[in-house]
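pasting for ref. prot 1 ->
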Amino acid sequence: MKKHYSSVVSRAFGKFAAKEFSAPVQKIINNSYVKLMGLDMSNFEPANTYSSLGKLFIRKMKKEPTIDAVRDSVISPCDARVIDFGTIKNHTAYQIKGMAYNTNSLIGAHNEESFSLLEGGAYVNLYLSPKDYHRYHMPFDVRVLSVMHIPGKLY
């Protein structure tokens, strides 16, 4: 059986990133991360102003981006790369690390009504790399009706 290590690696990185080191050490960590990942920090506070790598990772923009919305366009909610898109068939969305996944388990749908709402709908898989800006934005006016945590493997 193939082991799935991404959750372990993610947890370990999360613990390291949450730790606040002394200012000189944190400056080295943050500046090294920026250089290693090739981050464009022009719309953010300088790397050495963040008290942990985690805070640098979820840094806030100084100025919100201007969105030029065209009626028939799709605007990404995050700084990510599209790795797959398509139509949900048989409750399946494809191409998360080359594998097909059941949409109901991915989004936590647990009743027949939710299942039927997804079938025939569109999906987009976005890859958010370690160098990407890690905040999500709604590119249109929206009211969030609910938020849920879905336990399981990280993909």
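and prot 2 ->
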Amino acid sequence: MGIGKINFRIFYLLSSKIEVVLKFLYGCYFLSGLID
């Protein structure tokens, strides 16, 4: 049960980081579209 909790926490951290990176990339893409 402890291992499952640790895996879930790691997965949650990774997924939240991926979401932030995707939003950042989308924001950069949007801004570059505005500049062009």
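Helices lie at 2-35.
The chain is about 95% helix and 0% strand.
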